[in-house]
Structure formats: C-alpha cells, structure tokens
Amino acid sequence: MIIDSNVLIGNWPFRRLPYKDPGELRKVLSDEGITRVIAGSLDAIFFRDVQDGNEMLYKAVARHRDFFTPAATINPTYALWEKDYKQAIEEGAAAIRVYPEYQNWDILDHSSFELYEACRKDKLPIILTAEIEDIRQRHFMDNPRDWLGGEVRQLIEQIDGLKVLVVNARADRMREIALTLPSQKRKQVFFDISAVWGPFVDDIALCVNQIGVTQFVFGSHAALKTPETAVMKLKISQITEQDKKQIFTENIKQIMPRLVSCHA
C-alpha cells in the first residue's frame, strides 16, 4: 500500500502533460502500487479565482473518490476565500494547498494567518510547493517568486500546532528549514521525497538520518513527474524496511487525519 501526498491534476500552461484524464492517471499510479492519492488542481494555481480550479478538481475526481482525495487550493487574499474553504471541508479535502509564489502574496501576510489558524483548528495541513518545475527546465514565462525558506520557518515558529507539508523540495531546502527549527517545532514540518536525489547519492537516507523518518511522506509530483521514479528511489534507498513503510503509508495518516476519516 502506497499513499501519494503530491499529485496535481489539470493543465500546465507551459508544456503538455502526459496524463490529464483522472482515469488514465489513476491507472498509471496504480500500476506502481499507489493505492490512494491526495490530488490538487494545477488550474487553480493560475486562475484569478482559484475556486474555479477547485470546482474542476472536485468534478474530475468525483468518479474516483475511492482513490483520489482532494487538496483544495486557497488564496487567502481573495475576498471570498472563507467560502472556498468551507466548501473544501464539505468536499472532504484532506489538505489545503497554497501558492504565494505564483499568486503574488506573502506567506507571512496578515490576511493569510486567518487561513492558517482555520487549518490548525480543523487539522488540515498546509501544503507548500518548493518548486513546480526545476529552474533549469522552466519556460521563460514561468517565473514564480524565489523560494524563501526563512519565511516558512517563521510561519512554523509563530503558529503552534499548524502542520506544514513542503513538497518537491531538494535536500538542501529540507535541511534549511528543519535543522534550523527547535526540536519540538521540527515536528510541525514534513517533506515529500519527490525532488530528492536517488540511489547514487541517496539523499533520502541522509535526510532521514538528519531530520527523522517521521517527517517524511511519499509524493510523486505526478503528473509533472513520472511516479515510477519516486517509487523506485524509495524502494532502493538504504533505509530500513520499516522506515520505508512509514514513508510509503503510515506517516501521512498522522499528518492528514481527515484522509483516514473520509476512507474509514
């Protein structure tokens, strides 16, 4: 059993993706042993009203809710974000994805803290994306704000109990955040493995040893990346089989309690 914390469905404006249809994407993920997915909307990143992208996501996964669980995108600077958030709860969202780097707002904006507090209260983790695409492969019009790990660290320091999942981050960015936090605060931040190097470097083993296995979950970053790469690099990593099981399946249940309840 593998639970994928980081899948994106929809259109990416800068290149054609191999899998856009949820049914086709499900087959590709299932072929790699993935049994459950937390899926966000690519369209919501760029729509002026992110809720249009969320609505497309809810509709796309409606026939596959035994496999896909939505992660709604919220823009806390938008006037009706509270309504979007309420609907996300009603739709059974397991997490909230935010994209300040693309939507021209700051992680530490005063308005955004109302969203973080709501997520903390409702036990919904915030998902931040270190990068959608590697800077070496980006289209010239794909120009998000630079990564600011210090702001992520400040956010975690300021809100007790808020869980933050950082996806598609390289090992240096993981260490930049986790290893500069006090040990108790470090328990609030988690990382997927989609962007870490594989067997020749085995950044997975290095990061697990430095940060702790409980802070890692499986994520493929499909459909922008191929899921078999993420599955294989974890399978052949030089960590224990128990650690692999935690990353593949168990840790995500602690981060996203709503994922467990909606499939109970």
Describe what this molecule looks like in 3D:
The protein is of the alpha/beta class and 264 residues long. The protein has a single domain (2-262), classed as Metal-dependent hydrolases (TIM Barrel, Alpha-Beta Barrel), CATH 3.20.20.140. Helix content is 43%, strand content 15%. It contains 13 helices and eight strands. The chain has helices spanning 22-31, 43-46, 50-61, 81-90, 100-103, 110-122, 149-158, 171-178, 183-186, 203-211, 227-235, 241-255, 257-262, and strands at 2-9, 34-41, 68-73, 95-98, 126-129, 164-167, 189-192, 216-217. The protein has an eight-stranded parallel β-sheet with strand order 1-2-3-4-5-6-7-8. Helix 7 (149-158) packs parallel to helix 8 (171-178) and helix 8 runs parallel beside helix 10.
Secondary-structure topology with pairs:
Elements: E1 2-9, H1 22-31, E2 34-41, H2 43-46, H3 50-61, E3 68-73, H4 81-90, E4 95-98, H5 100-103, H6 110-122, E5 126-129, H7 149-158, E6 164-167, H8 171-178, H9 183-186, E7 189-192, H10 203-211, E8 216-217, H11 227-235, H12 241-255, H13 257-262
Parallel strand pairs: 1-2, 2-3, 3-4, 4-5, 5-6, 6-7, 7-8
Helix pairs in contact: 7-8, 8-10
Principal-axis shape equals: globular
| Tally of individual domains | 1
Q: What's the architecture in CATH terms?
A: Alpha-Beta Barrel
- Indicate the radius of gyration in whole angstroms: 17 Å
